């Protein structure tokens, strides 16, 4: 059997980590790029850690030698300096994909869509972002398309999963990692739907797409459906079912964000995303289903249980 090798940028993050682990179980050799591998290397994780900085093209190119797949899942933490760092990071991965003649996969999201896209935009719907991050996301997608390298963008809703990072609404607002769930901080609007994506499902979808390389166009885009919460209450209800009790629901303090912005730069970034909690925007996965036959989907309660356990929000099971 021919050994398949993938390079993952951002393997310590939510998406990158989930994809790296799924690739391993699918039989791939997985390299993971990090500026200081000694801080993260774990012999038990099965990853081949390589020293390198995503901002240095030569280091990414060196790590990609012999790879047929590159997963670009690296982002500046906390949305800091996106406008200055995100595109140069992507250029490094493009250079590596070109040198290795590899397929480059970019995890995308709903930020590229505004109200003009309609309530159920497909993968080829007009991209009319309302936010600075949305415009950067579109610039990333366009750069991939124009680069000429074989590339794929998989867009999904708000991420949640066992290793969700602080950039996720689930772990940054709904629950408090490391704490039992007593209350949920709800950013939604009653009656308005919201789209979620379970990280292991995103990883499974990416791997299935990567393994259909011969059938993919040179530049491909797909949307996931994930878990659609039709009235903005199903995710909270699932959390309550998993913890086995009712949870107190508090409204997210949207009105305080403008006051906090001068002292907390992330407040402005969070405020820009409010439209996704006030309007129902459900990306259509019709193109993905037509290509794969079905979208991988873990049942909601099982996904929430694994997420809460991974975040340390559930008690350890007793051993008799």
Automatic annotation (TrEMBL):
It comes from the Bacteria. Transmembrane segments: none annotated. Residues 10-159 form the NAD(P)-binding domain. GO terms for molecular function: aldehyde dehydrogenase (NAD+) activity. This is Membrane protein. It holds the Pfam family NAD_binding_10. One of its GO terms (cellular component) is cytoplasm. InterPro entries: NAD(P)-bd_dom (IPR016040), NAD(P)-bd_dom_sf (IPR036291), NAD(P)-dependent_oxidoreduct (IPR051783). It comes from Methylobacterium aquaticum.
């Amino acid at each position: 059997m021919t050994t398949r090798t993938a390079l993952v940028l951002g393997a310590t993050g939510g998406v990158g980590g989930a994809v790296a682990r799924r690739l391993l179980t699918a039989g791939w050799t997985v390299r993971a790029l990090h500026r200081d591998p000694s801080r993260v290397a774990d012999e038990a994780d099965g990853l081949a850690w390589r020293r390198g900085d995503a901002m240095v093209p030569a280091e990414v190119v060196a790590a990609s030698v012999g790879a047929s797949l590159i997963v670009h899942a690296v982002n500046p933490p906390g949305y800091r300096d996106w406008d200055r760092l995100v595109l140069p990071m992507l250029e490094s991965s493009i250079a590596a994909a070109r040198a290795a003649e590899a397929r480059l996969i970019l995890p995308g999201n709903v930020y590229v869509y505004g109200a003009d896209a309609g309530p159920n935009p497909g993968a080829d719907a007009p991209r009319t972002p309302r936010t600075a991050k949305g415009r950067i996301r579109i610039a990333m997608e366009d750069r991939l398309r124009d680069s000429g390298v074989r590339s794929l963008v998989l867009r999904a809703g708000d991420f949640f999963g066992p290793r969700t990072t602080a950039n996720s609404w689930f772990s940054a607002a709904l629950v408090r990692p490391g704490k039992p769930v007593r209350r949920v901080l709800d950013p939604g609007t009653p009656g308005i739907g919201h789209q979620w994506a379970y990280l292991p499902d995103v990883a499974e979808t990416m791997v299935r797409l990567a393994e259909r390389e011969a059938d993919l166009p040179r530049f491909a885009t797909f949307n996931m459906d994930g878990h659609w919460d039709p009235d903005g209450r199903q995710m909270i209800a699932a959390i309550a079912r998993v913890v086995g009790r009712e949870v107190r629901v508090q409204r997210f303090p949207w009105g305080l964000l403008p006051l906090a912005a001068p002292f907390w730069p992330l407040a402005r970034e969070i405020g820009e995303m409010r439209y996704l909690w006030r309007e129902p925007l459900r990306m259509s996965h019709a193109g993905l289903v037509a290509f794969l036959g079905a979208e991988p989907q873990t049942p909601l309660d099982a996904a929430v249980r694994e997420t809460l356990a991974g975040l340390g929000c559930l008690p350890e099971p007793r051993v008799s």
